[in-house]
Amino acid sequence: MARYSRNDEAGVELPKAKLDRESLTQALELFGYLHPYRVRFAAAMVSLFASSLLSLSFPYLAGSLIDSAMGHTQGSGSLVGVDRTAMLLVGILVVQASLSYFHFLTFSTAGQSSVVDLRRDTYARLISLPMSFFAQRRVGELASRLSADLVQIEDTLISILPQFLRQSTLLVGGIGLIAVTSLKLTGIMLVSLPVLTVVAVVFGRKTRKIAREAQDRLADTATIVEETLQGIVNVKAFANESYELRRYHEGLLTFLKSTLRGAKLRAGFIAFVVFSLFGSIVLVLWSGARLLQAGEITFGDLTRFILYTTFVAGAMGQFAELYSQLQRAIGATQRVRELLREHGEVEPSLTSAQPSELARLRGDVVFEHVHFTYPSRQGVEVLQDISLSALSGQRIALVGPSGAGKSTLISLLLRLYDPSRGQVLIDGLDAREYRLAELRAQMSMVPQEVMLFGGSIAENIAYGKPGATLDEIQRAAQQANAHDFIQGFPEGYSTLVGDRGIKLSGGQRQRIAIARAILKNPAILILDEATSSLDSESERLIQEALETLMQGRTSFIIAHRLATVRHVDRIIVIADGRIVESGTHDELQALEQGVYRRLAALQFRG
Known about the structure:
By secondary structure, this protein is an alpha/beta fold. It folds into three domains: 1-9 and 16-180 and 329-348, ABC transporter type 1, transmembrane domain (ABC transporter transmembrane region fold, Up-down Bundle); 183-296; 365-605, Rossmann fold. It is built from 19 helices and twelve strands. The protein has a six-stranded mixed beta sheet, sandwiched between helices. Strands 4-3-6-7 form a four-stranded antiparallel beta sheet, with helices on one face. Strands 1-2 form a two-stranded antiparallel ribbon. α2 (38-70) packs parallel to α6 (148-181), α2 (38-70) runs antiparallel to α10 (299-340) and α7 (183-230) runs antiparallel to α9. The longest helix has 53 residues, at 241-293.
């Protein structure tokens, strides 16, 4: 089973995968995004390896420096003189600094460039996936794949892999040079370091467990804040500020308890490390002093040994965390690979969309014995044997109780889903025979709940026709009765609408959505009670705009207010996933026990 570790920055759970051949092979497939930058990445690896080797020369030269000062240097070929050794150390330091600058910059360039490509492809695949995929996933989970998972992969390429190479070089090289310096002291060190390593691993696991718990509690408080701010109107309307404050305070206290438990454990671990580390140094110094007295080693040898021991201990201490980070990185690559392997509806491109090869549709629509079941709700048939037709230019109203299947029918028309049985014909051809992007390019929808993007008013209207000129945008806004209120803003069409259009009223958002649909100039129009949020005067003007818009277009109108569909060509009444009535307003009103007549009586009586 996958284990989970809290990513502190992203605040989400990341899976920790086992480091075996299969998981590494899968990860290497994703790391193929490094291929275009392989020369840079290889150069950075070579530079890092050379820099690590130079680091290993410091303890040796430090020992030589001390031996030179103590007069222990022998042989004319040896490094002689304190000044010469110090100059050599400075020279190596300059070279190492240059190599460090080069490999850090090159790793960052190659790693971030490859992750940018990966982010682009992951996002492209995500937005291309069918609605059945999104119906079974949470938005937060999908967002984490573009944030936490990809951040983890980026850290692996830029930091974790280079550090793994560096620490491996220091560990192997340090142990080898320690053995060359003194086998006796090496034996003493190797006895003490494994004990420290085991204790560090045990403490590390416990502290990570407590840290995960603390992050869970902190996430709970973040949820409280999010819910409170999203429902701030209700909070104030019910005067529940004190209640929300108490709820948040209790969550913070729970978080504080978990954090303090972790702090106590970390404090104990730090005390143990300080005692053990310095105890080991004392042991090594004591043993080294005895060997120094016996003349078996020099001061320089002892200095080299202590410094190499520090290198080895530091490397061993890093490996536990590096291993954990690699596990998280492998888990992140597995989640991203799962997403990239999903089959999308369409393949979006960074370049401009190709000109449509599909001629403008007439707009003849036929639902032929359509049945439908949502993939996430198998066994519950939402639509049952739906058959209806709409000729080019006709206006078809879909009415019925909530949950009857009206929106599902529209989803099939837009091909957000395909029928479980039966078919949807458009201009006599099965909708599945058309290229999806070309088909949807000739449809436009004005939803009841309008969601605007966080740009300007002009950008939101132009969403119906990317690249539209300002004149085209203004003409569409005028037809939608939006131009006057837009011009009333100080910044006009450049006014930012805010997150999801929060700076605009419901009626203003709806008129912008209508302008967006007008600009698209579709062959098939879908209106989901498009005037429901407007006042009486605006509704009258918008109805006039919609009358113009619907001319010559096949229009499907989901109607909740029956007064808006009295003059359509045909009203389809849907109940429990079936068509129960069909006809004009007058024909359906004439049915004494009809569903439409009952619904109309309830509304018009109110």
